[in-house]
């Protein structure tokens, strides 16, 4: 009968016992009627009603053992489905002791242990079961969940991979598996898993929320929004909770709908006023919009009132250190060191990384540069040890060389497009991270008629669209260049009524030549800074993803050199469209340098260009605090505070012909 399923993992003896007793004729009429009600309610998902009915059924007299086993099995299932996990545990422990051969009870007991905070007991049970049923996809998936909750994340990922390969394709599997891939920056694998699963589960709320969260973290805001749109309004209303509100708020903020983002944030905090992740996100929104003191207050509220694990605590402290300057004796420094000690004891690598970067900033504020660099070295080594395994520096650099070769080929072949004004009004800002690019963007986008697109991936996505033709140089024709330009303009919602549209994906320097040929009317600003200052600033930054070379000074040096030489070549070939913005001169002489930059770009002068700190736009980069202050040159020459560590790089730059004040 449908309401009572025979045990899935039982031994042969238990199966015979159940089969002998599952004859409905052995039940009283009252018990038969209850059984029909149980079947109906279970098939309609009325698990709370099922629980009451099953208990009445079990309280009847002369219940055959087979029906007792099946009824308790279904009761445990319903308790787990209604999150009555402790009651399920209390039910299952004596049942497993009594029916030692019933593996179905053991499976549910493993779930109950995990859901009541004992994932290690769950893993132990499931390991024993998997020795008997090694090819069982469902058991393997449950085992992966237990390993994840134990904090054994690499082992959990392997178990998720095996469960999928064994045939587990459930929405729950992907909703747990893909975010864990993203957390450890297996971004290529995460995208592949999304591609494999979205056609199966895009309409299921738990799947849509998890995948939208991952896409948001990858900066794919439009895809994240589309993912959420696949879920019906009815299911959204039924399933919404504070965690879901967070994802909706993030995605709406990502696509530029700040009003909806605020609405979902407020709703999430109404549902759960002490949701730590919502407060962290609220603090970030305040920080990126320039409300620094309110952001600090929000972060400190989190520490005092919300249930924060080590990772969240460390992230809060990291953000506080970004927002304020510390002095010796600040009590929060002792708190950070205490949390760091705990993170080391518990081997929580993510928390350690956050706190080492935080304490490096604290020691720099207190002018103990030796201690600061020691913390930085440890932080960056941890980052390097755990960076995205999909990243290959040599392949990344080779791609830049390939683009240089493509540019040489196109110029030799005299390939161009007729519309030399195509892209007029678009300004690309390229260069190394922490090179003053955010300040340049704030200057250009401060006027009401300007619009910034931030660090959009529009151009790289456009190239991916035409990848099949791009890999063969001889296929790159005037028509293809025209199509690439059109596709890019569509992706950034190009509007001719807007005087300036800025695109600050810094690594577009690799495509500077191609951009100049696809969009001849666009302008490219190369943001340039003292190379040793730039290296230090990159090394000090906590880059979550996308800058995997940034954790090794030798690799930073190599990438800086490649970017500088590539841009030197592109400037010689495309003089009409590429300009340099020198941060050192801009920061020390803004009143003369900014008018000169605006004139070189051919823009109409506006006095607002001199006050970029008044720009009200959201700034998501590591410079979101500095850019809110009046332009200052105090960071110029900052590498000299760490001279003993950076002198070898300074000397190498000088040997290569760079002019550096030593």
Oligomer status: single chain
Q: Tell me which CATH architecture of the domain at 393-623 applies here.
A: 3-Layer(aba) Sandwich
Report the CATH superfamily of the domain at 393-623.
P-loop containing nucleotide triphosphate hydrolases
Question: How large is the share of residues in beta strands?
Answer: under 5%
Q: Quickly give the structural class.
A: mainly alpha
Walkthrough of the structure:
The chain has 33 helices and five strands. With 662 residues, the chain is mainly α. The chain has a domain at 393-623: P-loop containing nucleotide triphosphate hydrolases (Rossmann fold, 3-Layer(aba) Sandwich). The protein is elongated and about 95 Å long.
Question: What is the structure about, briefly put?
Answer:
The protein is mainly alpha-helical and about 650 residues long. The protein is built from 33 helices and 5 strands.
